[in-house]
Amino acid sequence: MSRYWSSLVEQLDPYVPGEQPRVQNLIKLNTNEHPYGPSARVIAAIAAANNDSLRLYPDPTSLELRQVIASRFKLTAEHVFVGNGSDEVLAHVFHALLKHDAPVVFPDISYSFYPVYCGLYQMQFRTVPLDENLCLDVEDYIPDTGDKASAHAQTGGIIFPNPNAPTGRGLELAQIEKVVAANPDVVVVIDEAYVDFGAESAASLIAQYPNLLVVHTLSKSRSLAGLRVGYALGHPDLVQGLDRVKNSFNSYPLDRLAQAGAIAAIQDEDHFERSRQAVIRTREQLTLDLGLLGFEVLPSQANFIFARHPTLAGEQLASMLRAKNILVRHFKTLRIADYVRITIGTDEQCGQLLEACKEILL
Ligand code: PMP
């Protein structure tokens, strides 16, 4: 607290990211980073951009990057908005596209940044409980047909991740489409941070639905959490709304190195395909192996798994693993306090995690 703070700052309840340890030699399975490095073409592109031209501002519109992203999804650059990580993209989405005079709707167990943005922009929100299996039931997001006008009036927009975080559970495209089609008067945002690890993107629906916005990041499947690049795909009207906020905030969210690296990353389909398949294979093996140790592991379509053991509380397990130099993520939230979220590491790291779990459970 400081007497120099604004009244807004006093009220904020900021997001706390997973620990980024300063000590070496920890097995870091707590923030859903990719275990393998980015494409060599990314490193080369950043090296090539690392020259005297850094004295100049970057392209404020990141046009070339937006064109490269657009062509991958058979869209145009007018359908693409880019930002400094998808967290920044999401912040602008809350500011620009979700209504401020009706509650924004999202699941009770979901990305914990959503309520933080609502706090920052002084927006109301309503959470919808996941079912007892921690699955999202899309029927909960369909307004009652008899009461359509009032149901819409009460909703400022809908946002959820697919696959959901931190559960890893995904929805089928037809389910997503149902939500988008049933809520034509508000924007439906699908946060696809983890989609490349086994779920289906809703990007293919963008031409049909002007109220659909899909958000992606290069932090996960492109192995570039350190570069800070995220993007949104949607109708050009939505992108223009985002641009208005971005251009009232920071004209140059992506620097020259980030733009160069991101272009190379999107263009290297081979590296993308190989490295995401490696993570998927390890995830399936780790799910089986933890199951043999008595863990209940939710089926995951992401680069992490959400697991609990009948004899150990989540917090206890996380701290016992920490004592063995393995970081996993635990959330104190009531319904999921039994679980830990484990990022898929290399095969070797996952082997070490398994050994540590065996020792703890002995
Ligand atoms: N959405 C979800 C669901 C996430 O888990 C994360 C990562 N914390 C993000 C968005 C943001 O990722 P980034 O800002 O690195 O793009």
Provide structural commentary:
It contains twelve helices and twelve strands. With 362 residues, the chain is of the alpha/beta class. It has two domains: 7-37 and 270-361, Alpha-Beta Complex (Aspartate Aminotransferase, domain 1), CATH 3.90.1150; 40-268, Aspartate Aminotransferase, domain 2. Helix 3 runs parallel beside helix 9 and helix 4 crosses helix 8 (236-246). The chain starts with 6 loop residues before the first helix and ends with a helix. The model has no long low-confidence stretch (mean pLDDT 96). 4'-deoxy-4'-aminopyridoxal-5'-phosphate (PMP) binds at residues 85-87, 111, 161, 165, 191, 193, 217, 219, 225, 230. 4'-deoxy-4'-aminopyridoxal-5'-phosphate binds at residues 85-87, 111, 161, 165, 191, 193, 217, 219, 225, 230.
Q: Can you list the ligands bound to this structure?
A: 4'-deoxy-4'-aminopyridoxal-5'-phosphate
User: How many structural domains does the protein architecture include?
Assistant: 2
Number of strands: 12
Largest sheet, strands/sense/barrel = 7 strands, mixed
- What's the arrangement of strands in the largest beta sheet? 2-8-7-6-5-3-4
Helix content: 25-40%
